């Protein structure tokens, strides 16, 4: 799998966000993403079977919490990019 960082912009509640996402594969060949929003610490996004979508799956305090709207918008954008 090639690891190419994707950079895209989102606007949530009128606030612009610059998202940097780099895909990688786990040992079980699951695709996950290292995601930084506005140069924040990295969050890990992966598929959540219960939510049936890509979402932030890390629980690191270093990364901080992420608003649900941002989590959902980033997950949706990542899904559209891998489904394309």
Detailed description of the structure:
The structure is a single chain. This protein is an alpha+beta fold. It has one domain. It contains one helix and five strands, in the order βββββα. The chain has a five-stranded antiparallel beta sheet, covered by helices on one side. β2 and β3 (31-37) form a beta hairpin. The longest helix is centred in the C-terminal third of the chain and has 16 residues, at 68-83. It is globular, with a radius of gyration of 12 Å. It starts with 5 loop residues before the first strand and ends with a helix. The model has no long low-confidence stretch (mean pLDDT 89).
Quick structural overview:
This protein is of the alpha+beta class. The protein has one helix at residues 68-83; strands at 6-12, 15-25, 31-37, 43-48, 53-56. It has one helix and five strands; from the N terminus they run E-E-E-E-E-H.
What spatial order of strands do you see in the largest sheet? 1-2-3-4-5
CA gyration radius, whole angstroms? 12 Å
When the domains are counted, the total is: 1
| Oligomer class | single chain
Distance between the termini: 16 Å
Helical proportion, percent range? 10-25%
Model regions low in confidence, pLDDT < 50 over at least 5 residues: none
> What letter string, H or E per element, gives the SSE order?
EEEEEH
What would the average pLDDT be, to the nearest integer?
Answer: 89
Number of strands: 5
Please indicate the percent range of residues in DSSP E strands (runs of 2 or more).
35-45%
Shape: globular
